[in-house]
Amino acid sequence: QVQLVESGGGLVQPGGSLRLSCAASGFTFSSYAMSWYRQAPGKERDLVAVISSIGGITSYADSVKGRFTISRDNAKNTVYLQMNSLKPEDTAVYYCYRPRDVTMNDYWGQGTQVTVSS
To answer: Distance between CA 50 and CA 47 in Å, rounded?
Structure first.
């Protein structure tokens, strides 16, 4: 079955960095674009970054452009989110997402908490 397992979250001071990882299994990872979303308390889940199936194309929310970098290693079935210059407003649960397949199923990871605070 499809599994997405995030890791790398934690508590970091403003201006600090974190690297999130999402280990995927149960599907042909290299065939899918992958995304990171985040959800802050009391807010909707928002798209943070997207990467194409072979990694050549990326896209970012305006709020994270220039600070976050999405990447992937198809040999390791893993997608990453490098987060630099973190701000308190980046505090959220971060989720890995795989879009729908031909069966119309899409998948979310369990989420990893990122807290930016002094």
So the answer is: 8
